[in-house]
Amino acid sequence: MKKNYPLGIVAIVIGVLWLLSNLNLFSFSIAHVLTYSVKKLWPLFLIGFGATILLDKRSFLKPIIWLLIFASLFAYGILSANPTFNF
Fold first, then answer.
1. For the chain, how many structural domains are there in total?
2. What percent of the chain has pLDDT over 70?
């Protein structure tokens, strides 16, 4: 697996969300997502760093852990920006 694989997926997700916001399909503020969710959920980074230290160098779980962390940050930021969001 390539080293920048998780970063590429995060960039694609951010781009898709930004595009959907520009098309007015839902309200999305990248500044709100990055500031509010990181302020609230910063311990996830500690968990991610700890997990990557404990895992083997060639473990396939490292990118999965980081993808889950970034996905939870963005989901929390989006859902907190839209309190009336309904699945």
1. 1
2. 75
- The whole-angstrom separation of Cα 70 and Cα 60 is 17
Residue 87, in any domain of the structure: no
Q: Of how many residues is the chain composed?
A: 87
Q: Is residue 22 part of a domain?
A: yes
Buried b (16+ CB within 10 A) or exposed e, 3-18: eeebeeebeeebeebe
What pTM does this model have?
Answer: 0.57
Residue at 86 is within a domain: no
For 28-42, write each residue's pLDDT tens digit: 666 666 677 777 888
Distance of CA 6 to the CA centre of its chain: 10
Domain that holds residue 23: 5-81
The token pair that represents 43 in the structure block: 């311990």
With beta carbons less than 8 A apart as the criterion, state whether 77 and 36 touch: yes
Calculate mean pLDDT across residues 59-69: 85
- DSSP 3-state of 32: helix
